[in-house]
Design goal:
22-stranded antiparallel β-barrel, six-stranded mixed β-sheet, 6 helices
Length: 809
């Protein structure tokens, strides 16, 4: 033990005594370059520049070194540096070359001033070769980031169906390819590479959305991501936070926003690098009264991270996130009420409270140029409480009646270990990724009566034994995964992959089986103890193929099996608007993509692809009829039933094209730039032969046949103006394709269009932003809710404006 401590202390002292080489990399136009490989000739030391063009090599002793900078399609450069125990700063300026370069494993265009990009074939400890990916660089997006307006932030990601739950960006709801946008539950949602949803196994809904102002980038990988990150059909959604600047000991940033409906948002961050420690942290406070009555929110969000770089090979990062908010929910509306006055509210007593605590540690260890280890350990302690009237929106809220209370507490932890190995094979470079994941989730869920008050009181009347149900849902997951890029030639690659899953979910608790008479009085009540367990063990397979005629053109295709586990929490929630099948089962299927993507430096960028999603045992909602038990004679009762409705297929085209219009027209003003883009998705869907004969041949719910976003961005020196037009075609909200229903939970979601306009201006350290969302004040809705925040139609916000002032020093 003493020898081990002495060894560690000696290692740390040696690290502190060594010098470093740091600096920046730019192109011939003085534009910073990220992803430039920086190496020490004759050694295995290798690093790369970050988004600010900064690089740092530590742990160097006295002596002479040749530092080499390499980037595809640019001339490599080197500088000779002599270290005498002190640190040295250098700068590279890489020049263009005309000849074609030798193909390398990583393909990536330099960051251009457009709103979207795609991920490198190998990035960090992950493989994205031949996968459909999107990369959103937040600094390049002109949008209402304070309110987190999703249709602006994700405007260049084709095919996303966006639910608008609130006008303040508290909860993100996105889905694609016919997958429900409900709290983004069909994506594997991560922050800095680790899970942030309520329970990745048993309840994968995301009640916490990282603030846009804190993000460096957002990474999206479609269904083929399931082999590396988990089995969700939608793929991966990863929020990558900013780090502190590498060339400053302290940088302070303050961004303050006011807007319509008393929106107030203040975001304040600090960051920098002191010696071997890089740090970044922020505090955000947001409040709003909302577009509708009874819809105010109050949110606090804080984050801190510290990264210690022992040397060029080893770094250790710790981070913690806190988020808490209280929201009043105005409830849903019936169809007639929405078209009469979408701003009205029929619920004054509904409240929603969320508390989120996330802790994580990340270790990166580069053994050599060819071998890298990455380990992430994370823990979530969180809660979600909802109190109010869950009854049908057709009924008036009787304030003499007690409210319904749902309380969930989550306690999850996990660890994910990855190894990346670069190795030669048949004269080409190949890359192997192997890893494993261990995850333990625990959800405590209770439902019962609360008082009949108006305030946000989340206390049960019978706390020892809630009136409706109380359950513990533990789950565990052990997974092993592997992918390998086989470069068959300079242009062709094949990337097979597999994932082994071992999943166990359990339910232990009780619920009350009750029946009521026509007046609503309970005439039968029985407490039912329940203990259930479900175990699965299986292998998922996938393969990708890529052809790259040049560094800026790629044709890709991939196939990947998918799986989505049921969650017991949904089964045991008592919802008057919904009945859940006791025998509901897991979903299985696969994703297939084939596409072409490419770019021409600062001129245009495109990604055009076809996809096919096959769904087996898709979970959905149908309308059923049975005898109403409250009557002695037959009276039909229509109810909403959630079950494995059957097999379905969804297919279509997803297109993103963006170009510098001035350059395309051979008009090249020195200080201005006009870019235009179109994001277009056309989808078809159908239910196949299945147990629910009434839906065979129907369209799959939440699949708009046309989804378009298009816009223009004009920049002149420090001024930027962005216009966005969004259109989403009519879609169904349930598998029976009901046009309408008496409770407004089922029915058509009509087509809608909306426009947004945003402006930004920078002056030295100051930044001014302003804009108008829903420019024409269109009235529309994106969802029909069965429970919270409804039930019924949830109207989207009307026209709103905002003004933001930011300063950085």
């Amino acid at each position: 033990m003493n020898k081990a401590l002495l060894t560690i202390l000696t290692f740390l002292l040696v690290c502190q005594a060594q010098a470093q080489i740091s600096g920046f990399v730019k192109d011939q136009n003085d534009k910073v370059l990220d992803g430039v490989q920086i190496s020490i000739e004759g050694t295995s030391i290798l690093t790369s520049s970050d988004q600010q063009g900064y690089f740092q090599i530590t742990g160097l002793g006295k002596g002479s070194y040749r530092v080499v900078a390499y980037y595809p399609e640019l001339k490599h450069a080197f500088q000779d540096v002599a270290l005498d125990g002190t640190s040295v700063k250098i700068e590279f300026q890489l020049q263009e070359i005309n000849q074609e370069l030798e193909s390398v494993t990583i393909i990536d265009s330099r960051k251009e001033e457009m709103g979207a990009n795609w991920l490198k074939s190998v990035s960090g400890a992950a493989i994205y070769e031949a996968k459909k990916t999107e990369l959103i660089v937040l600094d390049e997006v002109i949008a209402n980031k304070a309110a987190g307006v999703s249709r602006q932030i994700y405007s260049r990601v084709p095919g996303l169906n966006i639910w608008e739950n609130d006008g303040a960006g508290i909860q993100l709801g996105i889905g694609g390819r016919g997958l429900s946008p409900n709290r983004t539950s069909n994506f594997n949602v991560r922050q800095n590479g680790y899970d942030i949803s309520a329970d990745a196994l048993g309840y994968p809904e995301s009640y916490y959305t990282p603030p846009s102002l804190a993000l460096e980038k957002i990474e999206i990988v479609r269904g083929a991501a399931g082999l590396q990150y988990g089995t969700q059909f939608g793929g991966l959604l990863n929020f990558d936070f900013k780090d502190g600047p590498k060339d400053k000991k302290l940088e302070v940033n303050s961004v303050n926003t006011i807007g319509s409906f008393n929106l107030f948002n203040t975001f304040n961050s600090v960051g920098g690098t002191i010696g071997k420690v890089n740090y970044y942290g922020f505090y955000q406070y947001k409040s709003s009264e909302g577009w509708r009555p009874n819809s105010g929110i109050d949110q606090h969000n804080a984050y801190g991270s510290f990264t210690y770089n022992f040397n060029a090979f080893v770094s250790l990062k710790f981070e913690h996130t806190y988020m808490g908010y209280l929201a009043q929910q105005p409830g849903g509306l019936m169809d007639s009420e929405f078209y009469s006055n979408p701003r009205q509210s029929k619920r004054e007593r509904n409240w929603f409270q969320v508390g989120w605590n996330l802790s994580a540690a990340e270790l990166n260890f580069r053994v050599s140029d060819n071998v890298k280890f990455n380990n992430r350990t994370f823990h979530l302690s969180a809660n979600r409480y909802a109190v109010g009237n869950l009854g049908p929106i057709t009924r008036v809220d009787d304030t003499d009646e007690n409210r319904n209370l749902l309380k969930d507490d989550y306690d999850n932890w996990g660890n994910e270990f990855r190894t990346i190995i670069h190795y030669p094979l048949l004269g080409q470079k190949s890359v192997l990724l192997i890893g494993n994941r261990v995850y333990f989730g625990s959800t405590m869920s209770a439902q019962g009566e609360a008082d009949n008050g108006y305030d946000a009181d989340f206390s049960f009347i019978n706390p020892e034994e809630p009136d409706d149900s109380q359950f513990h849902f533990p789950g565990q997951n052990i997974a092993f995964f592997a992918e390998n890029i086989f470069n068959i030639s300079d242009k062709w690659s094949i990337t097979p992959g597999m994932r082994y899953e071992n999943i166990r979910t359990n339910a232990d608790g009780y619920y009350y089986n009750e029946q009521s008479d026509i007046a609503g009085n309970i005439i039968f009540s029985e407490k039912v103890d329940e203990e259930r367990s479900k175990f699965r063990s299986f292998i998922l397979m996938g393969v990708g193929v890529s052809y790259k005629p040049s560094e800026r053109l790629e044709m890709y295709s991939n196939f990947s099996q998918n799986f989505r586990a049921i969650n017991f929490n949904d089964i045991r929630v008592d919802n008057p608007s919904l009945t859940v099948d006791e025998n509901i089962d897991d979903e299985r299927g696969y994703n297939f993509d084939i596409g072409i993507r490419g770019s021409e430096s600062e001129v245009f960028r495109y990604d055009i692809s076809l996809f096919y999603l096959a769904y087996k045992d898709r979970i959905g909602n149908v309308l059923k009829t049975s005898a109403d038990p409250r009557f002695n004679f037959y009276v039909p009762k229509v109810f909403r039933y959630r079950t494995n409705v059957g097999d379905a297929n969804i297919y279509g085209i997803e297109t993103y094209v963006e170009g510098n219009l001035f350059r395309l027209l051979n008009f090249n003003p020195k200080k201005s730039k006009l870019t235009g883009f179109i994001n277009f998705a056309a989808l078809q869907s159908a239910y196949l032969e299945n147990q629910e004969n009434s839906i065979e041949g129907n369209e799959v719910e939440l699949v708009p046949p046309v989804n378009i976003k298009t816009g223009l961005t004009y920049k002149y020196q420090s001024l930027g103006i962005s216009y966005l037009f969004s259109y989403v075609a009519q879609q169904y909200s349930d598998a029976t394709n009901a046009d309408k229903s008496t409770n407004s939970v089922e029915g058509i979601i009509p087509a809608y269009s909306v426009m947004d306009l945003s402006l930004t201006y920078e002056l030295k350290n100051w930044r001014l932003e302003t804009g108008i969302n829903n420019l024409l004040n269109n009235y529309y809705f994106t969802r029909r809710a069965a429970g919270y925040p409804g039930p019924g139609i949830i109207p989207s916000d009307g026209r709103s404006g905002y003004i933001t002032i930011g300063v950085k020093f």
